[in-house]
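[retry 2/3] Phospholipid/glycerol acyltransferase domain-containing protein: previous attempt timed out, resubmitting with same input.
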Amino acid sequence: VPIDKVFHYLNEVGDLVAMTPESKLTPEIQVKAMAGIIKFAVAGKAPIIPIAIYTENAKILGMFKSQGLRVKIGAPLKVENRLSRPKYRDERYELAEDIIRIIDSLKPQPDNGLE
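[retry 2/3] Phospholipid/glycerol acyltransferase domain-containing protein: success.
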């Protein structure tokens, strides 16, 4: 299977692969995409590292407004091998939802003015 050759190569040379579901997808499709990423992580014997990338209004030299790019990285998550098996689909989807919540928690929360 071609994907097996890719995993073998990546494991052999120790390269890093970044995969992410598009943030503008519906929540259901995001979870499904993340569940697929979990299967890749198991097959590649790799952790999942939650990363949030977002823009934020910033001032350059205190004068010019700019959209600054922010990146926040969470702790690596080990994925159990059994989660790649079909009978553990529900657990894989629960983990996918948890990972999406972790990524969302890395982003700034909207100011609701309740302070």
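[retry 2/3] Phospholipid/glycerol acyltransferase domain-containing protein: Residues 2-106 form one domain.
[retry 2/3] clearing retry counter.
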